[in-house]
Amino acid sequence: MAAWLDRTSTWLVDHHWGPYLFALLVLLAFAEAGIFLGFVLPGETALVLGGALCATGVFSLSVFLPMAVLAAVLGDSTGYEIGRRFGPRIRVSWLGRKMGPRRWGAAEWFFARHGGKAVFLGRSQAVLRALVPALAGSSGLRYRTFLPWNVLGAVVWGGGVVLLGYSFAHSLNALETGLKYWGIAALAVLVTGVVVLFRVQRAAERHAEAEYEASVQAGHDDAA
After folding, report:
1. What is the domain count for the chain?
2. pLDDT reported for residue 150
3. Which domain holds residue 186?
4. Is 14 helix (H, G, I), strand (E, B) or coil?
5. Do the beta carbons of residue 139 and residue 118 sit within 8 Å?
6. Which CA distances in Å does 170 have to 59, 62, 107, 114, 213?
7. For 144-166, how does the pLDDT look when each residue is reduced to its tens digit (9 = 90+)?
8. What is the pLDDT of residue 209?
9. 12-42: string of b/e by CB count within 10 Å (b at 16+)?
10. 85 Cβ partners below 8 Å, 6+ apart?
């Protein structure tokens, strides 16, 4: 896998595709909350790849890392502004209906419980990361309260994921040197990491949905 990554990186540099891919990956990090793309494509996928390409010399880490963080901040700020301007109408849009009432309800419950902190805490869950900024805007949360949590989450999440991809790409060389079947081992590590990340995110989302449904049921019981 290390050899494949090196060959791919060399091809990107030789054909001058690096700047275009750089722009695409940064755009995906922005679009996760800016246009709710996180519903179908978590932004960490783009940032892990970007970090790996920094390790092979396609991008400069000192440039890509702050750009990834800035894109995450701007994406959430755009989601906030969309929520502030359009509010509940987002839910009845085509994309809002695709997300479904359970996801909206879970995100709304999560935001109501944690307030501004939800902007930071929701970074660990792809769907919440896409929806919470819009809910923050529609709730009337002040931007001066929203922004610090937004920046903190972008630094921890965006920066951390880029560095994860960077470290992983570097580790492939060590695996190649130390293991006879390094390619299989590297692939297994990558697949395991992706599966664990996905399972953790899905477990967190299911937990939020379950707590939301429990709060709804408790409200019905109180009303009865």
Report:
1. 1
2. 92
3. 2-223
4. helix
5. no
6. 14, 16, 36, 37, 44
7. 999 999 999 999 888 888 988 88
8. 61
9. beeeeebeebbeebbebbbbbbbebbbbeeb
10. 137
pLDDT for 186-197, tens place per residue? 556 656 665 665
Which of 72-76, 110-114, 122-126 has maximum average pLDDT? 72-76
Neighbours of 147 (CB within 10 A): 16
Instruction: Give the amino acid at 212.
Output: Y
Q: How many CA atoms lie within 13 A of 223 on its CB side?
A: 6
How many helices, marked H, and strands, marked E, lie in the chain?
A: 11, 0
**Nearest Cα to Cα of residue 90 among 34, 41, 145, 44:** 34
Task: State pTM to two decimals.
Answer: 0.71
Euclidean distance between CA atoms 180 and 157, whole angstroms:
34
